[in-house]
TrEMBL record:
The keyword Hydrolase does not apply. Pfam families: Guanylate_cyc, MASE2. InterPro entries: A/G_cyclase, Adenylyl/Guanylyl_Cyclase_3/4, MASE2, Nucleotide_cyclase. The chain crosses the membrane at residues 21-40, 46-65, 86-112, 118-138, 145-169. Residues 225-360 form the Guanylate cyclase domain. Keywords: Membrane, Transmembrane, Transmembrane helix. Gene3D superfamilies: Nucleotide cyclase. SMART domains: CYCc. This is Guanylate cyclase domain-containing protein. The keyword Transmembrane helix applies. One of its GO terms (biological process) is cAMP biosynthetic process.
């Protein structure tokens, strides 16, 4: 069945054939009426035969030559129809009714094909046809139109108009139905793409769907800043909690950390249990310095946000003070698609990946560790404390490391945040993140807390 379909010649669309046949049939009927009124002559008989045969000839050639389906070919045929219109007007000796009907036919066809521009072009070509044929034939103008010719011209012209209008209406309805099907398919595809996008980092998904990145097994070297974090004491917590509650806690934590990572422009590589791996500098990079600053700023924001999460978890009965530890490293990594042709993963490998992972394992609760190269890029923006050199597994030489203290703007005389934790009390206030229209709500909440605390002390 497939083979037979391939062997059949592809025929061009029939709508042009039908409308052209109707138009030239109108011309044939009009000249037949002229012949009946004035007697058959060689030119009128030739016009009748030509009008009946010409559409069939065009169709025959179009079937043989597929290039007639192209827009240029269709426009050339429309231009030839306009020239024919001028010749037919000359041959009917400028009889008023047939001339107006012929102009109406070419106008209708031109508007359907391309609107006002094609209409003007059709009139101009019809005028050219009139001038050329008049120069050759030198007819005697006869503006009067007999009753039979006028009736036949008007009836055939009206029939053409009604039939073509009905076809255009039917075509419009078909296009409308096709558009609805296309919209439904697009919506279905959009939902599918949205679901699939959740398995990829937004930056990677966007670069693939925009065509900037090909889905092939290829990699390249690039300077990146790599980030690792995990929850200190998560293994012990997993032994104490039910699986469902632990799943909810972990999903909540990963969702919040992902939101912060995307806020700072990080590419989320993967989640491994409670471990989060993020890198900066690919597929979009702001420059090595800016990428490193964004990565460390993200780590600080995550550490701050853990205070909010601990307060939420405490209200859910989780009293263990969960802390995260983080490690970062900056350097050249191999980034791209790894795996097999039918299953690949967009990730990074290299020395800096291993170093960031080792520093995360070496960090204490709430600590952010970075090597010297990362420190040299972010020291103007972020305050760090020198922790000397440590031996790192897999590295032959000791590594100089620094502990990230915080953003310099938050450590001055007027820090932008206030935080304090005691048994039964936890507060974290970041004035830079509070929206203007939320200030009153925050002030009222603090006043209610202060009133409750005072009442409790009095009692």
């Amino acid at each position: 069945m497939t083979l037979n379909t391939r062997l059949k010649p592809v025929r061009p669309p029939l709508q042009g054939y039908y409308s052209r046949t109707m138009a030239y049939l109108c011309v044939a009927v009009t000249f037949l009426a002229i012949s009946i009124e004035q007697g058959f002559t060689g030119p009128t008989t030739a016009v009748i035969l030509y009008s009946l045969l010409y559409p069939q000839l065009v169709r025959f050639v179009a079937v043989r030559l597929r290039r007639f389906e192209r827009l240029q070919s269709r426009l050339a045929l429309l231009a030839l129809d306009a020239m024919h219109t001028g010749i037919f007007i000359t041959l009917c000796q400028f009889s008023l009714v047939p001339s107006l009907v012929f102009l109406m036919l070419i106008s209708f066809a031109s508007i359907i094909s391309g609107g006002t521009v094609y209409l003007v072009a059709g009139w101009m070509l019809a005028l050219v046809g009139i001038l050329i044929s008049s120069a050759v034939l030198m007819p005697e103008p006869q503006f009067h139109t007999g009753l039979l010719v006028a009736s036949c011209s008007l009836i055939s012209g009206a029939t053409f108009t009604v039939v073509v209008a009905a076809f255009v209406y039917h075509q419009g309805r078909s296009l409308e139905q096709a558009q609805r099907l296309i919209n439904a398919e697009q919506e279905k595809t959009s939902k599918l793409a949205s679901n699939l996008a959740k398995y990829l980092s937004p930056q990677v998904w966007e670069s693939i769907f925009s065509g900037k990145q090909t889905v092939t097994l290829e990699t390249h070297r690039k300077k990146l800043t790599v980030f690792f974090s995990d929850i200190r004491g998560f293994t012990e917590l997993a032994e104490e909690m039910e699986a469902e509650a632990l799943t909810d806690l972990l999903n909540n934590y990963l969702n919040e950390m992902s939101r912060i990572a995307l806020q700072y422009g990080g590419t989320i590589d993967k989640f491994i249990g409670d471990c989060v791996m993020v890198f900066f500098g690919d597929p979009v990079s702001q420059g090595a310095k800016q990428d490193a600053e964004a990565a460390v700023s993200m780590a600080i924001a995550m550490r701050k946000h853990m205070k909010v999460l601990r307060q939420q978890w405490r209200s859910q009965g989780i009293t263990r003070p969960l802390e995260i530890r983080m490690g970062l490293s900056t350097g050249y990594c191999t980034v791209g698609n790894f795996g097999a042709d039918n299953r690949m993963d967009y990730t990074i490998i290299g020395r800096e990946v291993n170093l960031a992972s080792r520093l995360e394992n070496a960090a204490d609760s709430g600590e952010i560790l970075i090597p010297h190269e990362t420190y040299s890029l972010i020291k103007d923006l972020i305050m760090c404390r020198d922790k000397g050199q440590i031996a790192v597994k897999g590295f032959s030489k000791p590594v100089q490391i620094y502990q990230v203290v915080g953003l310099r703007r938050d450590l001055g005389a007027a820090p932008s945040f206030v935080e304090h934790e005691l048994p039964g009390f936890s507060m974290y206030l970041d004035t830079t993140s509070i929206r203007n229209y939320d200030k009153e709500d925050v002030i009222k909440a603090l006043e209610r807390a202060a009133k409750k605390l005072k009442d409790k002390v009095i009692i």
